[in-house]
Specification:
74 residues; mainly alpha; two-stranded antiparallel sheet; 2 helices
C-alpha cells in the first residue's frame, strides 16, 4: 500500500522516529559553539572597553567608593 510518496513501512518508521524525538525533548547539539562565540565576543568587548576607557572607569570607581559613607553617616 502506498501513501503519497512514502510506503506504509517508511511512514511508520518516520512517525516512530519523530515521536521518539518529541519524547526525548529538544536536542542541545550545536549549543556549545554558540556559547563559545558569545563568551569570546564578551571577552573582546570587555577588553576593548577596558583599553579605551580604563582610566575613566578607574576614576569613576574610586570616586564612587570614596563617596560612600560608613554606618551612621560617618
Amino acid at each position: 500500500m502506498r501513501t503519497g510518496n512514502m510506503t506504509t513501512t517508511r511512514l511508520g518508521r518516520w512517525t516512530g522516529m519523530r515521536l521518539g524525538q518529541a519524547l526525548r525533548g529538544p536536542s542541545d547539539r550545536g549549543d556549545v559553539p554558540g556559547w563559545v562565540l558569545i563568551t569570546l565576543m564578551t571577552a573582546g568587548l570587555v577588553t576593548l572597553l577596558w583599553a579605551v576607557a580604563g582610566d575613566q572607569l578607574e576614576t569613576l570607581f574610586t570616586d564612587a567608593i570614596g563617596s560612600v559613607s560608613g554606618p551612621g553617616g560617618r
